Amino acid sequence: MTKLAVQLKQGADQAWESLSEGWRELSARASGALTRFWPVSDDAAYTAGRSAPSTPTVPQGSLPRLTSWAFMAADVFDDADKVVVRIEAPGMRREDFNVELHGNVLTVWGEKRVDREATEGRWRVVQCAYGSFRRDVALPVSVKADKTMASYRDGVLRIELPKSDESRARRIAVQTA
C-alpha cells in the first residue's frame, strides 16, 4: 500500500469510529426520553386493577395496532433543596399513575386509556400512544423517599423529591492559617 492509501484508510477508520461513537451517545441519551407502551385490549383498558406492565397484548376493536414506543416529555429540575420531575401526560387522571422510587431511579408507570368515540367511521391517523406505560428517570442526587410528593394538573405530573442531607451542597468557610 502506498503512503497515501494508508493515510486515507486511517482517516476513514477514525471518521467511522467517531461517527459510531456519536450514534452510540445519541442512542443512549434518546433512550431515556422514549417511553415503552404496551397496548391493551378495549376490555382490559377499562379494568380497575393496576400492576406493572409485563406482556404486551394486541388491541381489539376499532383502533389499529398502535406503536409501542412514544415520546413522554420529562423535565428534571434540581435546586438547593429538591429535585422536581415534570412529565407531560395529557388526557389522563391522577388515578392512572403509579410512582415508585428505587434508589436514585424514579419510576412512573400506569395506563393511558383510549377514549371511545361515539361516531361511526375509521381511524385515519393514530399518533397518540395508549396502553400501559413505564418511564424511568435517573435522579442526579439522593432524595428523601418518605417526603416525596406527586400532583397532577393540566396534563402534567409533577413530582417533588426533597434532597437527602448528604446530597445538599454545603458552604465551607476558608480560614486563614
CATH architecture of the largest domain: Sandwich
How much beta, percentage-wise?
A: 25-35%
- Rough shape? flat
Query: Helix segment count?
Result: 1
Helix percent reads: 10-25%
Overall description:
With 177 residues, the protein is of the alpha+beta class. The chain has two domains: 31 residues; 134 residues, Immunoglobulin-like (Sandwich), CATH 2.60.40. Helices cover 16% and strands 31% of the residues. The chain has a five-stranded antiparallel β-sheet with strand order 2-1-7-6-5, with no helix packed on it. The chain has a four-stranded antiparallel β-sheet with strand order 3-4-9-8, with no helix packed on it. A hairpin with a 2-residue loop joins strand 5 and strand 6. It is flat and about 70 Å long. The termini are far apart. About 14% of the residues have low confidence.
Please give the structural blueprint.
Layout: H1 3-31, E1 34-38, E2 69-71, E3 74-78, E4 82-88, E5 97-102, E6 105-112, E7 131-138, E8 149-153, E9 156-162
Antiparallel strand pairs: 1-2, 1-7, 3-4, 4-9, 5-6, 6-7, 8-9
